[in-house]
What does this fold into?
Amino acid sequence: MPELPEVESVRRSLLRSGLAGRTITRADIGWANSVKHPSAAELASSVAGRTVEDIGRRAKYLLFPLAGQPGATFVAHLGMTGNLVVQPGEQPPHPMTRHAFALDDGRELRFVDGRKFGKLWLAEDLTTILPPLGPEPLGDEFTTEWLAGSFAKRNAPVKALLLEQSIAAGVGNIYADEALFLSGIRPDRPASGLSADEVARLRQGIIDCINAGFAVYDRVRDLRWPEPPEPMGTWSHPRDARTPCPNCGGAMTSMRIRARGTWYCAACQV
It folds into this structure.
């Protein structure tokens, strides 16, 4: 599944493409099961003639507020392999393009989604479609106190709680591993057993690894523009047993936490 920096990279690419301020003239929905609210036909007719005011993001959801009355927001989730690109209408679409939204300048906003796990909504009230979400990891509300309070009296593995979007919105599997590696904490430690210092280190590890991901995507986007960056893997520690830990040179270890593949260094993370 796309990680938070990848979704943010898509948002920044769409802003750079000049999507904000463009009017959708027609919507071609090629895979109706993607549309979760309202029906595919209603969504297609409702977005036509509406102007995209901005491109926002909440956790891993991309938000497109549309001008007009009543106010509405077009929402997209990339699923496992999805991507959104703005391309000239005459450019042949990627064979896995599921939806195309014609724009008033002759280009199209295209949703490429090989595995068809992407989702689309149109809603007047975002609270009716988004799950409970905690603060953004780079926002002012994501404090050490917030994280400590979220862990209090919860004996679940700390990594499992990091994946609960109500604690740190948008943190996914890879970046949870990254943050735990940077902070020197085993992913299977009971969350309530972390000391105040460990919670502070973990918060900073989350911030650092996400900022690093943003920076890498920004550099790659500049090199590849107008083509979007390819999905990026891990950056601070390997996710295989053949490559040694960059800190101590020991072997990396794997386990599964709530069915999610998890990599850590048994020597560096305690």
Notes: The mean pLDDT is 94. Helices lie at 4-16, 40-47, 144-151, 158-162, 173-183, 196-224. The longest strand covers residues 82-88. The chain is about 25% helix and 20% strand.
